Structure prediction request, 246 residues.
Amino acid sequence: MRLLLFLLCATSMTPISSLASHCDRVDLRAVEATICTIDTERDRLELFLRDESGAPFKFFSALQRHLERSERHLVLAMNAGMYHGNFDPVGLLVIDGVEIAPLNLQSAAGNFFLKPNGVFALTASGPRIVESSLYPNLQNVELATQSGPLLVIDGALHPAFRKESTSKYVRNGVGILNDHTVLLAITEQPVTFYDFAMFFRDGLGCKDALYLDGGVSSLYSAALQRKDVRAALGPILAITEVSRGE
Prediction:
């Protein structure tokens, strides 16, 4: 596994996982995490929030049932940004090219507002992570979710992170490896912001990475037979595929 990660970071071309599994457990820079590799040229990456009746999915099991009704299969899913008590996103959310919630450039307390914060977006030209105020420059956005803080910004760690920090949580985030490869990461033990950012930059080779959340961080992986139920969730990033007949 370590050799495989080294090759991935050195070449920025080889996915961590096989086409079938998507996810692997890694231990790098004293951070143990599950990493899921998404090839946006191959995988059907989508964002979900509410079903056709307007009810929030909240849990992977509800999303799974929703997909099965249209003969689709849930392959991989992860919580995708911070949300209010009614499960609406705190910031921007774009699903299937439609803006569900607007960009939030306000200043306030909390991780979301620890600026610079950012947006993860999938555009017609590939995945992007940008500082929130730069989001309007993107074109042909297919999906987008805003969160904060940015973990890595063009190769630099967020200026607020401190090596000596003692604030630790199970955390998850998203990074971009190249012009078509996205890495989703969820830690297997509580870590600091500093260590999580270093994990993305120096461990995985991502020049840009965005924090998605902590504490509620959850992963669904059909290949790993994993279905976390830590909390009711807001936006959910997922890979789906059409169910195959017998």
